Amino acid sequence: MGGVSETLAALTIDALAAKFRAGEATPSDAARDYLARIEAHDPSIRAFMTVTRDVALAQAAEADARFKAGAPRGPLDGVPIALKDLFCTRGIRTACGSKILEQFVPPYDATTYQRLRGAGAVLLGKLNMDEFAMGSSTENSAYFTTRNPWDLDRVPGGSSGGSSAAVAGALAAATLGTDTGGSIRQPAAFCGVVGLKPTYGRVSRYGMVAFASSLDQAGPFAKTVADTARVLQVIAGADSMDSTAAAVPVPDYLAALGGGVKGLRIGIPREYFIDGMDPEVEQAVRAAVEVLRALGAQTEDVSLPHTEYGLAAYYLIGPAEASSNLARYDGVKYGLRVSGRDLVEMSSKTRAAGFGREVKRRIMLGTYALSAGYYDAYYGQAQRVRTLVARDFKAAFGRVDAIVAPTTPGVAFRIGEKEDPIQMYLNDVFTIPVSLAGLPGISVPAGFTRQGLPIGLQVIGRAYDEAAVLRVAHAYEQATDWHTRKPALEAVSR
Amino acid sequence: MTEPRISREDVEHVARLSRLELAEAELLRMQAELNNILAYIDKLRSVDTTGVPPTSHAVPLTNVMREDEPRPSFPLADMLANAPEAAGAFFRVPRIIEE
Predict the structure, then answer these.
(1) Predicted model pTM
(2) Is ipTM strictly over 0.85?
(3) What's the CATH code, domain A4-304+392-484?
């Protein structure tokens, strides 16, 4: 098996679509190339929970026919994609990284998957994740830990670690993940790919296994900002099945990329450069700011004074919502059942056997925070601090059009390195405030440490202004070549 | 050392509310971990939030309404297909009412 450069898997979505249109390759060729790469490299990366080989080949054959008839559906037709294993896929097991859903085969498709299928995309499979999207490394998957393609001894980030590793390893042209407190942006940074968390309400949550409903949002991972824009274009917009998917017009994201940053006001938040962060990350982000300035952006310091309280507020709000959402796993309607004498014993034994440590911890924390006597001191205070975090951003966006910052304080860590929950949570200190405020944020490759580990630059925008976020990220990407570097992977011989 | 915020009895109570059966070792570890996390979270108390309204959703949305028109729902068989135990048109559960 040769390197990626010899296969269709090396191409961006735009380049792949051009080949399909020119008749130089078919969607079936692309599906076979990606499936061959999955076979060669996924035994070491372990991004996939399920490879849907037969589904992919059948869907690709349909796309072949559309191109042959001269009637492709658009830029994603025939493009091989994969989904985090919490997007419901009819007839395809959706386990959400949990033993409690090991046997769960959804009876319907998530809206995002329906829209990707409507655009002709081809499903390669379902991707590993931290159980119920709770984690920053995929180490909380009840099944296995995904490896970072840049260093197989390190984590890919999480919770959407399968989604980021699959794109970094060229095992899919693009993937979907979800972000509740950083679960798209942090793994994108760790794996050196582009990952976008849209505004809360930009993309439908219908058919997504719920974690924290006021924060969860789906978004794309891709090799480039333009590819990310292509996928967002398809999945964004109101949905009659999700009343929180807002009826805000969806602009032409690809058209928005061309604007450049000349004259754009870009804020640099001083609270995002903290003691204890990796100096190589700080250096890379400061260098990225210089690149944007050289491109004509007006940069200025801004302050987001409640940043340091975001993490604490999030670890009350997220678990509180999770404790309620996960009450549905009671062994009755679907999922695991462990029998008991009565309903309470059955549910308690089922949940004890079906949930992992981190999920139990958050259910307990959330239940405690919501329980009588503590509600206002914990949950109420967290919600008020959430208001202050959102006000910080609102004030900053009165002066600037976009904010750039590090995505994470450090780079991909070793598997098993962070045992303490709070040490793990601290990974998300720069992504959580954006989630609390519901704003769009992207992570774009911004360099490598001396050890060769990727660094991510975060671009944050106003609510529903994904266009500005993509525009700044694209301008930076086009001025640098970090996104063209690929990890060296050795095929597993069988 | 300050008094732990969560006692063993608290952990047992919250576990019951959460419908989680915890083994002895798990219970002790949970108590220690929750106390550590709450100690970290305590920093929220130092924030002055006088007069600050709570945020439940970041992006304000009002109720979204649609016409109340009947539409086909999922077939019963599909909805029961994932049930651990079904009987006829029902989910089957252990006895709830004492005789």
Answers:
(1) 0.97
(2) yes
(3) 3.90.1300.10
